[in-house]
Design brief:
This protein is mainly α. It has 13 helices and no strands. α7 packs antiparallel against α11. The radius of gyration is 18 Å and the shape is globular.
Amino acid sequence: MTRRELAHWARQPVQVVVGLVFPVMLLLVFGYLVGGGRGVSGPYVDFLVPGMLALTMAFGLEGTMLAVTQDLNKGVVDRFRSMPMVSGTVLVGRAVADMLQSAAGLVVMIGVGYAIGWRPDGGAGFLAAVGLLLLFRFAMLWVGIHLAMVAGRPELVQAVQILVWPVGFLSNAFAVPASMPGWLGAVVDWNPLSATATAVRELCGAGAGGSSWAAEHAGVLAVVWPVVLVGLFLPLAVGRFGRLSG
């Protein structure tokens, strides 16, 4: 199933390139045009790049969601059902392919971060930060796959995937919660993406950038949130996929 999904890359190179380039454009726009880092102590690039890395892991789910719904509606899954395989294998193969593309995108973003002056601490801390980013992507991936199951049809995917946007923009990717109204700052502090972004900043030597309980325990929340999301949405997605393809 993973090999099948990777073969699609050769037939749809534009979609793959767009998925890699779009986060880079966002990084450059917020870094040089929109950004300013209100309330950020230290160089803004040290705050922005980890936030953008986390944001990149939250977005770009449309390709996977479309692929899942297209398989359901074009009868592909019906052919797979005649083979001795677990129905959820289709989703697992798509998930592995998505994680490989996400890892490639992460490498590109880290390279661009270096190009614009980001210098994270190396060693185990940096590797742990990359691990947290990929863990967060894995969790968001299963949220997206479940939303695709809810949508059911490719034409509805774009409408449903908008539900992921608040996770990205109600976060501390671009600004510290202390610079926001109190109620909004509290929402942002407890956003799963904010936990990952803050933990990545700490591991890369930039500091937490907040004094709330969530900011002080961002490393714990960066693990707990994805585990909870995967534990909730993975079985929901696989179960719904089985019912829709049954």
